[in-house]
Predict the structure.
Amino acid sequence: MTPGTVMDLAHQTLFVTALIAAPLLLVSLVAGLVIGMLQAATQIHEATLSFIPKLLCVVETLFVAGPWMLKILIAFTRGLYAGIPAAVG
């Protein structure tokens, strides 16, 4: 395996990781921001009030974006397995 291919593989791995994590992180960020603004406006600072809605939003995002995330992971894994002969020989 040449150094260029190792760096390409590392780049692809980080890109796929960011691509899969982005929807969950963005939804959690937006939900946390909205809930934080509501808590600041109403002056209700309950820990479960921010945790439960964020958890529900992330679960809903997993249901909606899960098949897409799985397709990305399967394509990446197939590419890894297909590249084994080139890496070995």
